[in-house]
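Q: What changes when K2U is included in the input?
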Amino acid sequence: MAIRPILIHPDPRLKTVCDPVPDITDELRTLADDMLLTMYDAPGIGLAAPQIGVLSRLIVMDCVKEEGAEPQPTVMFNPEVIAASDQTSVYEEGCLSIPEQYAEVTRPKLVTVRWMDRDGKAREQEFDGLWATCVQHEIDHLDGKLFIDYLKPLKRQMITRKMQKLKREKARGKA
Ligand code: K2U
Ligand code: ZN
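A: The predicted holo structure follows.
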């Protein structure tokens, strides 16, 4: 088990449509465990495989935020939204690959998702609230889509320029 480095936007790997997972191997189960460790360490409530440079259709989530409540680590291979409500909800989103930038994104309030779990079992569930926002945010990552893609071009460019500056400063700091 290891905490993996999270890619920072802009990075071509974050704009790539990821490949489906053909079958669930022990290596992929270990990757999912590393992603959960990386997510909790960030901290975050979701993480998609391309964010750690693995271009496969795998996401992890745990949107339980209540103090003292039982964590609910969730691993999804090949997740797909099979139904979405017309009703929408607005949430101020962030992203571990776009640190300290937040903006309102409107998404369907309810989504039904089909996926394969870590035991290779087909699952299907309806999500509401923060879980619905998070699962859509993560599935977008698998299609190379970031929350800033929903913003006006000027706002998106501003955030991208801030990230390019951050990456330059990080590189200098390491140089
Ligand atoms: O994919 C990611 O970068 C993980 C996000 C998931 C997320 C973004 C927006 C809305 C819901 C989920 C991180 O968890 S960003 C940190 C965060 C934490 C709590 C609530 C919202 C965002
Ligand atoms: Zn994200």
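Observations recorded in class: The domain at 12-171 is CATH 3.90.45.10 (Peptide Deformylase).
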